[in-house]
Write a structure and sequence with these properties.
By secondary structure, the protein is α+β, with helices and mostly antiparallel strands. It folds into two domains: 131 residues, Beta Barrel (OB fold (Dihydrolipoamide Acetyltransferase, E2P)), CATH 2.40.50; 255 residues, BirA Bifunctional Protein, domain 2 (2-Layer Sandwich), CATH 3.30.930. Helix content is 33%, strand content 24%. It has 15 helices and 18 strands. It has an eight-stranded mixed sheet with strand order 6-10-11-18-17-16-15-14, with helices on both faces. Strands 1-2-3-5-4 form a five-stranded mixed beta barrel. The chain has a three-stranded antiparallel sheet with strand order 7-9-8, with no helix packed on it. The two termini are 35 Å apart. About 1% of the residues have low confidence.
Length: 498
């Protein structure tokens, strides 16, 4: 018990604490180790046999969330993993003393009950309680049903309360679990092997992102929290694992937004003897299967635009520079062979579109700012954007017809990137050159061991990353990445902005 009870304006904490002390004085344990449970709530409802009241017996358990006192009987509801279940508690069945003790329970308490199923006059499947046990006493009151958890910060900081009082949050949690399970089933059906690779890395590679740094005391060296799964998984291609995948946490020490959290979940897949077009087929199977399993439909409502996203229709494919030229109203791509002209035209186009650019930006960064700010948000229906500038990804194969481009796609749905995919670079000499261009003089950022692995030979492959959190935003209709991550990154409650 806390030495410093919470400072709350009402006396519910004190009242509940007194009830706890009375239970202990009477020799009753208010925090039991376990209780019998044969069914979850939804399973109990499904177990009822129509027309056979009181023939199916169940043991269920959960948190008390509804009380309807009718004097000598009560209708209450408990909440468990699958939802709410109604219980009918009658004085005649329990006896005077047991019924009196039941009436002293509070909303939020956990109980286990045993009884038979029946259907009420209103058609609700209900448990007629014959025995009950208090298994955990709640000392703090739950938020009020209608006026409770409205502060968004409290929703994220006290997610457990959000899950109790907001059914839509519980539904998103359950859908997320089913989405991940669907992805795993689809991949297993295509003979992918799921693995686990290190979170702590000597070199932060596989993406262009600022890492988190930590120190290993025993080894006396700094490690980086991984910013991508790619380089470890491609080593496994070298080792003969032809279809490999991992669902893992990624850490990037960067900004927070509606689509970004410093800690997020990524699925990465690599398939030998395939390419970025093979990944097009795979991502359509992954997304469609997940949508069908969790929503029962391939149509989604895009909240921001009101459009219906049709995953069942043919997915559009278009080139990156075709979109850029369309957005700027000129043939910007025609100047790619003249670096000075290309940069000047790109900067002018960005300024004309009202974008703020920085003097130190390279041309491809300016052009990509146009894409990310003015084009990507307009791509609501599934769109494969292909053949990006090579500077945007040093790990992809160069296009045979135009070595300034790479054989890649970015899948955009609902105005946000869901999955980038590449024809993976397996030429160790080209890969070294691309790394050198990316890192400049900072040689410590080059993963030499990965280059040595490539020199042992890596088969041609298609590779893809799928942002699990963004896919969950899409398939659950959430407004923000914070709504699909149970415990998003937040400033400590006591800390104040500097």
């Amino acid at each position: 018990m806390s030495d410093n009870p919470p400072d709350i304006s009402h006396d519910q904490y004190a009242v509940r604490l007194q009830k706890l002390q009375e239970l202990r004085a009477a020799g009753r344990d208010p925090f039991r180790a376990s209780c019998g449970q044969t069914h979850f709530s939804a399973e109990a409802v499904r177990a009822y046999v129509e027309g056979q009241d009181n023939t199916v017996r169940v043991q269920v358990a959960g948190r008390l969330v509804v009380f309807r006192d009718m004097g000598k009987s009560q209708f209450v509801k408990i909440l468990d993993q699958q939802g709410q279940l109604q219980l009918y508690v009658k004085k005649d069945l329990l006896g005077d003393a047991t019924y009196a003790a039941f009436k002293k329970l509070d909303l939020g308490d956990f109980i286990g009950v045993e009884g038979a199923l029946f259907k009420t006059k209103t058609g609700e499947i209900t448990v007629r309680v014959e025995k009950y046990t208090l298994v955990a006493k709640a000392l703090r009151p739950l938020p009020e049903k209608w006026h409770g958890l409205t502060d968004s910060e409290q929703v994220y900081r006290q997610r457990y309360l959000d899950l109790i009082v907001n059914p839509e949050s519980r539904d998103r949690l359950l859908k997320r679990s089913r989405i991940v399970a669907s992805l795993r089933r689809t991949l297993a059906g295509r003979k992918f092997i799921e693995v686990e690779t290190p979170v702590l890395e000597n070199v932060a590679g596989g993406a262009a992102a600022r890492p988190f740094v930590t120190h290993h005391n025993a080894l006396g060296v700094d490690f980086f929290l991984r910013i991508a799964l790619e380089l470890r998984l491609k080593r496994l291609l070298v080792g003969g694992i032809d279809r490999v995948c991992e669902i893992g946490r990624i850490f990037r020490n960067e900004g927070i937004s509606r689509k970004h959290n410093p800690e997020f979940t990524m699925l990465e897949v690599y398939q030998a003897y395939s390419d970025f077009r093979g990944m097009m087929d795979l991502i359509q199977a992954l997304v469609k299967n997940a949508a069908q399993e969790v929503n029962g439909s391939l149509e989604l409502k895009h909240a921001a635009s009101g459009q219906v996203i049709d995953l069942g229709a043919p997915w559009r494919e278009t080139r990156y520079f075709d979109l850029i030229d369309g957005a700027v109203g000129a043939k910007l791509s025609a100047h790619r062979g003249d670096p000075a002209k290309y940069r000047a035209e790109a900067a002018a186009a960005a300024q004309q579109l009202g974008l703020e650019i920085h003097a130190g930006w390279e041309t491809h960064e300016i052009v990509n700012e146009i894409f990310s700010k003015k084009i990507e948000p307009t791509l609501i229906q599934p769109t494969f954007v292909t053949h990006l500038p090579k500077e945007l990804c040093p790990l992809a194969k160069l296009n045979a017809e135009d070595p300034g481009l790479i054989d890649v796609f970015e899948l955009i749905i609902g105005g946000m990137e869901i999955a980038p995919a590449y024809s993976e670079q397996n030429d160790p000499f080209v890969q070294r050159e691309m790394f050198e261009q990316q890192i400049g003089e900072d040689r410590q950022k080059m993963d030499i061991d990965f280059l040595i692995a490539l020199e042992h030979g890596m088969p041609p492959a298609g590779g893809m990353g799928v942002g699990i959190d963004r896919l969950c935003i899409l398939l659950t209709g959430a407004e923000s990445i914070r709504d699909v991550i149970l415990f998003p990154s937040l400033r400590p409650a006591e800390a104040k902005p500097s």
